[in-house]
Amino acid sequence: MKFAEATTNGGISILSAFIDGLGGAFSIDLPLTATVYAGTRRREDRLMEAIRSEFGIKDQLTYKVKSSIPAGYGLKSSSALVLALAKASLLYKSVDIEDADLLVRLANISKAVGLSATGALDDLCQALYGGYCITDNKRMKIIKRGKLPELAVLVCARGETRPSRSINIRGNYFKVARSAENLAQRGFIFQAAVLNGFIYGTIFGIDLETVRKIEENGANYASQSGKGPAVFGLFTDPSDAKRAKMDIGFGIVTKINNHGIRYRIYDS
């Protein structure tokens, strides 16, 4: 029996595109693997049906997913799933799509099935390439992307989830959002992520006590991942990240990820 498998990763927000359409994210080593094979699922699957329709795949396909990304906490689980499932399906059918075309079409799928209000091109981009990506989600263009120092990362996710499809922002945040965008454009990726997290923490709330403990344990940077509610810390020394996790009492210690999607086809 033939199987196609694709592994992507979660990420952390640099810029959240809800305010004016500019988005950014960097990849962290929290993998999600989708495995596709012939068959049908018991219940209707809007995402798989949308992928099959978009790419002209007539075969009935089913899949299984193994993920280490906490879902609904601002850590890019939806985009990791969309990309992994689409890539595995295309690989299964030996369909080759250019990266730029693939990303735009998957962003449109994400909006169509209600996974993202903006299409999350930035999140899809980091899941495809690793490192960081800055994108214009209105014009569906990649502005810049690159690699980052592979710092240790602590992510702490708890509380009620905040699905991207239901985000509603009241108030004028354009000027402060532009400040974060200017930092990102000038290459200050981590500083932009920190400011962006506090902008959205002001709007939706932020776990300041956990951020404080992360900082006290030696983090270089600490904030919320976009709309959250997950918060993160970046550390030079992984032992500091582990100590912070022990102090807080929960969390996941990982690192920045600079490799992109990985995939394979095999028989079993």
Outline of the structure:
This protein is of the alpha+beta class and 268 residues long. Helices cover 36% and strands 27% of the residues. The protein is built from eight helices and ten strands.
Task: Give a written overview of the molecule.
The structure is a single chain. The chain is of the alpha+beta class and 268 residues long. The chain has eight helices and ten strands. It has a single domain, classed as 2-Layer Sandwich (Ribosomal Protein S5, domain 2), CATH 3.30.230.120. The strands form two sheets. Strands 1, 2, 3, 4, 5 and 10 form a six-stranded antiparallel beta sheet that branches. It has a four-stranded antiparallel beta sheet with strand order 7-8-6-9. The longest helix has 16 residues. The protein is globular, with a radius of gyration of 18 Å. The N and C termini lie close together (5 Å). The relative contact order is 0.20. Keywords: Amino-acid biosynthesis, Aromatic amino acid biosynthesis, ATP-binding, Cytoplasm, Kinase, Nucleotide-binding, Transferase. GO terms for molecular function: ATP binding; shikimate kinase activity.
Short descriptors:
single chain, 268 residues, alpha+beta, Ribosomal Protein S5, domain 2, six-stranded antiparallel sheet, four-stranded antiparallel sheet, 8 helices, 10 strands, globular
> Could you tell me the mean pLDDT?
94
Which range does the strand content fall in?
25-35%
Number of helices: 8
| Total number of strands | 10
- What's the N-to-C terminus distance? 5 Å
Following the backbone from N to C, one meets helices and strands in this order, namely EEHEHHHEEEHHHEEHEE
Specify the overall morphology.
Answer: globular
Structural class: alpha+beta
CATH architecture: 2-Layer Sandwich
Largest pleated sheet:
6 strands, antiparallel
**Whole-angstrom Rg:** 18 Å
